[in-house]
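User: Structure please.
Assistant: Input sequence and predicted structure:
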Amino acid sequence: MATVATAQQAGIPTRTRAARRRSWPVWRWLILLIAAAYFLIPLYASLKFAGFKAFTQVTTYPQFGTAFVLSLRLALIATVLTLVLMVPTTVYVHLRLPRIRRIMEAITILPIVIPPIVLIIGVLKVAPGFLISTPNLLGLEYVILAMPFAYRSLDAGMRSFDAKTLVEASNSLGAGWPTTLWRVVVPNLRTAILSATVLTVALVLGEYTMASLDNFQTFPVWIVNFEQNSGPVAEAASLLALFVTWILLMLIVTLGSRSARKRGIGGVQLFSVATQTRQTVGETE
């Protein structure tokens, strides 16, 4: 019913919109098949090389559990610190300092431009001694690596709704900044926060350079070290990490879709701000 009403308000016949949804051009199916082959063929080759017996053997090898738990611990530390730092920063830049958004984009892209080996050498030179001997230093380094992905996900979330109007309405009702951030802004950023979370977790579970230079045996380091002894088992461990990331991604998509249905809105869209602006201009005219 809501779709029909939206189509009628937009002046587009309902049958035309339904026909457009049903008709998929051939080139779309071709692109979909090429993308599926690009991802599924290497995955099938890896499964065939590893064999299903390797998945039952991988958990019995020494230091597997320790390395996997350490990676999960670092993923938790990096995710929490990234969200605590980036959510208020992104919201404040959008609401108070919109002119420096391009500067923020340039700053947050630096961890991608600068090689990780350069970052880790600089960190080891300036980090205090009590952090160098603990894996917590590695968690702080992962916060830097995750900053480009987290900021762009949150930035897209801020573009998807009129944050300024909601914040002004909340302030006019007597809510302070912490209450407004937690009860007004964060619920609208739920999908963006979930996206930033899965990107950070995927990065931590697959990062090797910093962990190896810090002499910590995380799950990727364990895979590389064990690959010299048993290739199929190491391949099975890599696929296991890939499957865990996929499961987290599916959970995040499911939670985000349910939240969007309950609130009657769509997911995070990069071009939603432009659409809202056009609608506002049209209503004004």
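The domain at 24-284 is CATH 1.10.3720.10 (MetI-like fold).
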